[in-house]
Amino acid sequence: MILTHSLHFISSGKRHKFLSILRILPGNHVLFMGKCYFKFTRLIQLICAGESCQTVDERGSVMRDHYIVTKDMSWMAGVYDKNARLLTRVLDNDEDFLVNMTPVEILDETLNFYGFDLRGALNGAKKVHGNVKMSPFIVIPPHAVCLFPTKSPSRHDCIFINVQHILNTLPRDRSTKIQFITGRSLIIPSRYGQFIQKKDKAEQLQRIIAARNEGKFETSYHKREYFYCRETGFLTITREDRDKDAEEDRNSNSENGKSKDKKRKKKKDQ
């Protein structure tokens, strides 16, 4: 049964299980092939474009029991081994290895290390971008390290990418080729336009959090929009909004101050 133009599956039997295949191409390119079938009782033979395609454990990758995200991590993704265990493949500091944890467990462990959690990170990102699907989030708050998912974070085949490590992106049929600062490349089954939108949101969130960490981003009671006129060269205010909560606090403080002044006057008169 042909699953793709370059991947053939050979098996006999009825009991199968869905697993993800991670294929390494020449030139350090990584291609996620999607879903294939594995036999429960024995390993099957896989042929990829005339090459032997091995499962995760058979490739001899280094396995770690524990890992937290660092600034040097380029991407990580969930992969299955031959025993149907969900592991995580990580590219960190140009080193490719496996972790005996799921991607969500790694994210939670990392955020807990800094006193946060994944739910709080996602809610915080929504405060900046609004309620958007597959929102980027900050995984290392002190350094504003921002990751964004290629799919829903709850899916096992989701890839989490560090936006600060992206050097260049190129369209490739219905996929996107990502070039990292380490010299590695990653090909993901995502349309180029959709990927660029996710990347732009992640870059925006990273810049905002980095500015807040440095104390350069100050909230204001007034939100103004300016219009630049080419003829006159002047800036004019087109809209001015006030923060309702801040305005109510100001009003309540002024009323409290007035009531205190009245009480003082009454005491003096008495």
TrEMBL record:
InterPro entries: ComK
Any one GO BP annotation for this protein: establishment of competence for transformation
Biased composition range(s): Basic residues: 260-270
Bias-annotated ranges (Basic and acidic residues): 240-252
Lineage top rank: taxon: Bacteria
Annotated region described as Disordered, given as residue ranges: 240-270
Pfam assignment, any one: ComK
Name this protein carries in UniProt: Competence protein
Organism: Mesobacillus zeae
Taxonomic path: Bacteria, Bacillati, Bacillota, Bacilli, Bacillales
